[in-house]
Design goal:
The structure holds 2 protein chains of 2 kinds.
Chain A: H1 4-10, H2 23-28, H3 33-56, H4 66-88, H5 90-96, H6 98-101, H7 107-115, H8 122-152, E1 154-155, E2 158-159, H9 182-199
Antiparallel strand pairs in A: 1-2
Helix pairs in contact in A: 1-8, 3-4, 3-7, 3-8, 4-5, 4-7, 7-8, 8-9
Chain B: H1 6-50, H2 59-62, E1 63-69, E2 75-79, H3 93-103, H4 108-117, E3 120-126, E4 132-141, E5 146-154, E6 160-167, H5 181-185, E7 193-194, E8 197-198, E9 202-204, E10 215-217, H6 223-250, H7 258-270
Parallel strand pairs in B: 9-10
Antiparallel strand pairs in B: 1-2, 1-3, 3-4, 4-5, 5-6, 7-8
The chains are: A mainly alpha, B alpha+beta.
Chain lengths: 206, 271
């Protein structure tokens, strides 16, 4: 099997930095690393299985209602994820609160079903879905890493910047509150897109 | 088979909806108990956290009494065992908040009857150091969703022994900071009465005054959540006030005032 089906969505054709999909949640859950990681895992699971199910059903889905069918598949999986998190990982589900429900609106999932799963066999579809979720999650975690470190001085809630550096303790350092605000997530995402496009000249549309 | 026929499309969607509904209903039913248990466990831990105890403490050994009081200070119901199943534990604080808010719009004459309709939970905790604490509730609307918490008072019913706040969807890093330990620690040893007058706890933007007995720092960047929390605590304690006052008068050893001592001495002399 072609290896590019895994590497493309993660690097060359990353859903966030190249296709600019799923931006809304990239802004919302990237203040702290932990929710960003759980969001990345949840989205990866949902894109993977939604693509798999859509691909299994691809020859039976009536063309005229195919978007509705896709939506139902995605919604079903998201509600399952939400219910399972509530039952087995209650703390995490509380942290993500509404964002779990908002996985439904993540354009990457519908985009991959429509563009790939409906025309391909189940196994490649599953891998394509997982890889796209991973590509999205990678960017999400990278943004959250920068925002939590500079905005709160912590990573996964653990203090990284030494306490003695802080102005409150007589030091010179102050957390940058800008990084906690949503606009900064957009700016960081913009920087990633800029970086990727400058290294990957062939992708730039003329 | 022709998948574009009308009849096929209709049957397909009916089957799809039925299958999906069945799967969801099954999952929801089979996970319901577990989810409710999580919610109950979390509430138990919050009550323990409000008196400064961690998850390792045994809820049933610490929380000894659950009382339901109304807005006039009357005790409606007391439970001393199986607290997690008691009426006080299962009161919906969001419903009671709506009732407390409605109070303000009522004419004076109907106030007392309406206050009698309130059902407010109070928990009494026996702490490992031998002291006791009364735990009171607070609930209100934050910036994005509800915020709530538990506030425990020492037996003088004035000094705060600890607090635990939580929220459903405040902004991480900003409003969500109300749930963090540094914010809760500020409340310790603050007093809700000043010279016998109820003053609640003020959450002050720009920092509390040094040494103040009833001010704590607000969260920078979380002004709306801070204000909402301030208002929720005040509103709930105002509802509890008649109960607090009835406990104050019941308190076993009130300090005798100077005038009273002189009076008793006179009585002795007259004999």
């Amino acid at each position: 099997m072609d290896k590019s089906i895994i590497t493309n969505p993660i690097l060359k054709n990353n859903p966030v930095t190249v296709l600019v999909l799923g931006i809304c949640s990239a802004l919302a859950v990237t203040v702290k690393l932990e929710p960003a990681c759980v969001m990345a895992i949840s989205v990866t699971a949902v894109t993977g299985f939604a693509s798999l199910i859509a691909s299994l059903l691809r020859n039976t889905i009536p063309n005229r209602i195919r978007i509705i069918v896709q939506l139902v598949i995605v919604a079903l999986l998201v509600i399952l994820v939400d219910q399972i998190l509530k039952a087995f990982a209650y703390d995490v589900s509380k942290q993500l609160s509404v964002y779990v429900g908002l996985i439904i609106t993540n354009c990457i999932i519908m985009g991959r079903i429509e563009a790939f799963a409906l025309g391909n066999k189940p196994l490649p579809s599953l891998i394509d879905g997982l890889a796209n979720g991973a590509g999205y999650g990678l960017i999400l975690i990278a943004i959250a890493f920068i925002r939590e470190l500079i905005g709160s001085g912590t990573l996964f809630g653990f203090q990284i910047i030494p306490e003695s550096w802080y102005m409150a303790n007589g030091g010179w350092y102050l957390n940058n509150g800008m990084f906690i605000m949503p606009p900064m997530a957009l700016i960081i995402t913009g920087c990633f897109i800029w970086l990727q496009r400058s290294f990957q000249k062939d992708e730039v549309k003329k | 088979m022709d998948t574009n026929k009308n009849s096929y499309t209709i049957i397909y969607s009916i089957v799809m909806v039925v299958v999906v509904a069945a799967v969801l209903a099954f999952v929801s039913l089979s996970l319901k108990d577990r989810q409710n248990e999580n919610i109950s466990n979390e509430k138990q831990q919050y009550l323990l956290a409000s008196v400064g105890l961690g998850a390792d403490a045994n809820f049933n050994e610490v929380i000894k009494e659950a009382i339901v009081v109304d807005g006039n200070g009357n005790i409606i119901n007391t439970a001393t065992s199986d607290i997690a199943k008691s009426e006080a534990f299962n009161i919906s604080t969001s419903e009671q908040t709506a009732k407390i808010k409605a109070l303000a719009t009522l004419p004076e004459a109907e106030q007392e009857a309406a206050r009698g309709e309130l059902r407010l939970p109070v928990f009494i905790a026996d702490l490992p150091d031998g002291s006791q604490a009364y735990i009171f509730s607070a609930y209100g609307a934050g910036l994005w969703g509800p915020i709530w918490g538990w506030i425990s008072l020492k037996t003088d019913l004035n000094t705060i022994s600890g607090v635990k706040f939580d929220h459903s969807g405040e902004t991480p890093g900003l409003g969500a900071e109300i749930a963090t330990p540094w914010f809760a620690e500020q409340f310790q040893a603050k007093e809700i009465f000043t010279n016998g007058e109820f003053t609640s706890i003020a959450i002050v933007k720009g920092g509390a005054k040094e040494g103040s007995k009833n001010e704590v720092d607000a969260i920078s960047g979380g002004t709306i959540t801070s204000k909402a929390l301030d208002a929720s605590i005040r509103m709930w304690f105002e509802a509890y006030l008649p109960y607090l006052k009835s406990l104050h008068t019941l308190a076993a050893t009130p300090m005798p005032l100077e005038g009273e001592i002189i009076e008793t001495q006179e009585v002795v002399e007259n004999k």
